[in-house]
């Protein structure tokens, strides 16, 4: 059994938040550069150049890539042989041993669980990076800002071994708002599903800051398909699905989406999307759930293994 301190998790998440805000991953930069080289429309090419320049400035001057610094979505792969310390029984005796100071000057938060540690890291990272805090405490009444960009959206899966992998995505509201879900009949043809996916992107138009990265989840059920569409966005760009059928579908969808002519920032061109990634899961014989998550060109995500 391996032990990992909750404080280590909080510190790692804090660093991921700052890194995501200031630095595009290498595969995203490579995809933008490749698109710029192949783009035939002069105006679209200039826009792609500007997006790359924006990324360079953000990284070199340590300022956010976008004013919407996103909702923190954290995927946790927790090894079955990992124990988070200190254990719960110690915390009950002396909770002060796990108090983590807040950068905001507020009351320190006790790190009792893994989720506590992740939220403490998000709060510290968004404060340290001077990042916009965009989370409201409830959705429909007064919508007060939590002032910490927490709580984060956390998805935990159990894996074999003694590792702990944390993957953080800073998901902007504009592109998230254009994501969609649909429950198809299980007898539906692949062409109909593909046409709907292209239409989702067409409806997003310029409003979610193309060129896009399009994550697609198929199978599972209502909530699992949406989760799969988010996980698809974490796949390294340029890496097609392992199943030949879905790999071909990804390539066909990418070509069809780029043929819409929406182009970078909606001004026309060949590059409406940089990537289409599909993730699948088994599902009920009566169902065919499909979810599409739209991600803008500022595809901010980072991972660390503790």
Write a concise keyword list for the protein shown above.
38% helix, alpha/beta, 4-stranded mixed sheet, 306 residues, 2 domains
Q: Care to describe what's here?
A:
The protein has 306 residues and is α/β, with parallel strands linked by helices. It has 2 domains: 124 residues, no CATH class; 133 residues, no CATH class. It is 38% helix and 24% strand. It is globular, with a radius of gyration of 20 Å. About 4% of the residues have low confidence.
Query: Judging from the principal axes of the Cα atoms, what is the shape?
Result: globular
Number of strands: 12
The helix content is: 25-40%
The strand line-up of the biggest sheet is 6-2-7-12
Average predicted confidence as pLDDT: 94
Would you spell out the secondary-structure blueprint of this structure?
Blueprint lengths: L1 E4 H17 L3 H13 L3 H20 L9 E9 L2 E4 L2 H6 L5 E2 L8 E2 L3 H15 L24 E7 L4 E8 L1 H4 L3 E5 L5 H15 L7 E9 L1 H11 L11 H15 L14 E11 L4 E8 L5 E5 L1
Parallel strand pairs: 1-3, 2-6, 9-10
Antiparallel strand pairs: 2-7, 4-5, 7-12, 8-11, 9-11
In short:
38% of the residues lie in helices and 24% in strands.
